[in-house]
From TrEMBL:
Gene3D superfamilies: Homeodomain-like (1.10.10.60). InterPro entries: HD (IPR001356), Homeobox_CS (IPR017970), Homeodomain-like_sf (IPR009057), KN_HD (IPR008422), PBX_PBC_dom (IPR005542), TALE_homeobox (IPR050224). SMART domains: HOX. This is Pre-B-cell leukemia transcription factor 1. One of its GO terms (biological process) is cell differentiation. It comes from Esox lucius. Residues 144-207 form the Homeobox domain.
Amino acid sequence: VLSIRGVQDEDPPDPQIMRLDNMLLAEGVSGPEKGGGSAAAAAAAAAAGGSPGSDGSIEHSDYRAKLAQIRQIYHSELEKYEQACSEFTNHVMNLLREQSRTRPISPKEIERMVAIIHRKFSSIQMQLKQSTCEAVMILRSRFLDARRKRRNFNKQATEVLNEYFYSHLSNPYPSEEAKEELAKKCAITVSQVSNWFGNKRIRYKKNIGKFQEEANLYAVKTAVDAASVSAQASQANSPATPNSGTVFPYLKPQRAINNML
């Protein structure tokens, strides 16, 4: 009796297909349908610096809906592939059975024919899984990029972080206490503060010339702010005079500098 079950069991798994299978399983495309890739969506949201239960709930739902579409297409095409492979293999086996009535057919010949069929169909299966993985990666990338754009700090938070960075330029490594204080001022997390300083140090070292001008502006701003505080204290401790408002005439550029920053 001719059978292909033994041949299929003996075929070693393709390492590349195994990697693709693992990726599809991790992204929620293959495997049990319950959850619909929600774990992958939650991981994507966490990587983008947010939580799927907060302001990203709509995008999280969109991600799962589009991932479900990819899953549906994948399983539909995979079913067609498996059906075509099975039908073609059975067709070849029937031909071999017919030929075995007129000439002897060795088991090795049968194995060779079935192996050829499987190799041909295996390339189709790999293309399907590769294209599905690419579709998931494109979806994931767009989802993360969209969230990152919304996670940009506002101008006030950026100014607070830059002021601290340039005022501690000799050692721009804030302590944990300083990070917590900056996080409260900027309404962000301590982890985001740490990431910002890490990225800022890298950018500063790569292009010191460009950031030197920015450092000078913040140095002037800090000096002007300090002088302004000193002037207000001096005026509060001395009687008013007709020209008390012109004691520090060089303070006038403060607003212009603030606008520049």
